[in-house]
Specification:
- The protein has 14 helices and no strands.
- The protein has a single domain, classed as Na+/H+ antiporter like fold.
- The protein is globular.
- The mean pLDDT is 84.
- Helix 13 runs antiparallel to helix 14.
- It is mainly alpha-helical.
Length: 291
Amino acid sequence: MEQFAFIITLLMIGILLQKTDAPADLAKSLNFFVIYVSLPATVLLQVPKIHLDFSALGVILIPWILLPITVAMVFAMTRNQPPHVRAALLLVMPLGNTSFVGIPIVHTLLGEEAIPYVLMYDQFGTFLILSLYGAAVIARYETGTFHKRLIVKKLLLFPPFIFLVFALIFGEMPYASQSYLQLLSSTLVPLALVSVGYSMKFGGEVDYGLFTKALILKLMIMPFIAFGILHTLGTDPLALKTAVLESGMPSMITAGALAIAAGFAPELSAALVGYGIIVSLVTLPLISYLM
């Protein structure tokens, strides 16, 4: 309970910083440090603990299995909506905040031993989907072009992905370096959550009927579908619980930012990211309790 209170406190610090004269690019700076330092350190510490067995494979596959299901549901929900609304939901619904929000919440609910599975879900699932599918959605609804070479270049040069491959190849880091990596890794949760809080936006004119349906799909329906699939496959309990919680994370801030930048229903996109984080602080512990 204290860890959850700490998560809320960090989010509130970020929200309160919006009212100060903090630099406009504060969240961008915090995210830069997290992506280039905190997350790679966490990857180097935690990924060597992963045993690439059937359970790990299930964790990797579940976001890809949920992707076409989510897309089909979005098309059904937006059959009477303009293209920019459909494009917004196609971006923010399949992509969850599986690292910045996912790591601290899963750590709180399931413990540190679940973090390797979080990293597998995030890097081989969410990140690849953002890089490939997210770019395709933007190309389809905004630019009309699809730059395959640029997408592959961004994927291969993304620091956490580079360190993920390194950790899978070389395994556990030398003992002398682990205390320093632990120190860098410990910055991930506070910096990520303050950044999330600072980035949260509320208000604006939103179709609350569509917003409610989208939130229910993202935070409740998707994790229960994931549970059904993984339970049927006989996945290891810890891997199953981790993947289910990851599939029920609120919409990714980056996906929301991309939707807003592209002009895809900006107020709806911001509301799904901002309110989704708040609601998920209730739904995720509830799902964990039910499991």
